[in-house]
Design a protein that fits this description.
elongated, binds arginine, about 400 residues, alpha/beta, Rossmann fold, five-stranded parallel β-sheet, five-stranded antiparallel β-sheet, 15 helices, 2 domains, Argininosuccinate synthetase, chain A, domain 2
Length: about 400
Amino acid sequence: MAETIVLAYSGGLDTSVATKWLQEEYGYEVVCVTIDLGNLPDVDAARERGFAAGAKAIEVIDAREDFLRFFAFPALAANAVYEGQYPLATALGRPLMAKLLVDHARAVGATSIAHGCTGKGNDQVRFDVAIHALAPDIKVVGTARENLMTREQAIDYAHKFEIPIVETVESPYSTDENLWGRSVECGNLEDPWLEPPADVFEWTRSLDQTPDQPAEVEISFEHGVPVVLDGEAVDPVTLVDRLSLLSGEHGIGRIDMVENRLVGIKSREIYEAPAAITLLEAHRALEAMTLSKHQLRMKDRIGQEYADLIYNGLWFTAHHQDLAAYVQSTQRYVTGDVRMRLWRGTATAMGRRADRSLYSHALATYGEGDEFDQAAAQGFIKLWGLPVQVQAGVQLLAEPGGLERLAAPEGE
Ligand code: ARG
């Protein structure tokens, strides 16, 4: 009896061809699984193509809410942003897809799982590592990695096997979309000197087309999780969808970066992440009110580690569990409201409040009701400056020219 393989199926040309190719080349029975993380194109057409390509079954799984609850929102709590810019939409989707593919493989008794990632990117690493962590016995086939067809060859292959493909004008880009963001690469984006052409962007307006008037939106968080928009409790998918539209309209969330891939390549990537950028900004504004200085500093470092871990495909690890436990613990008082202004490509916190805020007006004010003990400042400064004064006296000023060097440290 033929072995069964579960294929991560998007329904496009490449995975339709892969459906047939896995049967022809390896003799597999192919079960297609389409995972909806908030980006599905035409499901009916995809289904038709899949069956025409000989799929034994085609399953569509709506994983949008799980994706936000268990992947994107924890990353938000950590302020996880790769290399200072990329909110990790694609990277966050992969471990959930891997989990669902493994579950489905078990359900249908499959021995193998296939994905269509190329052999040069991060996504193959994320899929392979995640699948093998969850199911070491399952074999992984990277169809694009093993079957290096050009686009023309893929189209010929589809024609040969009568797979109904739509030959729309070929997009020069490779894109990946989910609720947390949109990733675009290839085409003339590969020239880092060229400005990204207008047709790269689909979710965000360019700055010369954003509204003249700003929009305001109030986002409420509970333990670091966004739960309310403008006073209305909404489910995660609705919340992110709404924020994405509104922020995109105001040109927020366009990212153009040269990033370091795990496989050693630098690549030029364009991202659109309007909701993620607005939420990250709002979340940071609330943390500034509710976390101590030490917590904020440590959390920044943990957030970077967390972002690297997500990017590098290490979701299913003890290291992740440990970092997540720390992040989770920091969020216990991150509850409150942030009023955001969305305008001309920027999301700015205009107001913030929290019941357990560490911000004390009585301590901060220069006006009426000041409770800060200014006399105590003198004693504090005396001790704070003590080692500075000792070192200056004993070492830095003691040499000839010491005073000059101390006053102009960058001079010769
Ligand atoms: N460079 C990004 C990452 O590694 C995005 C990859 C996007 N994939 C794609 N097919 N365009 O997460």
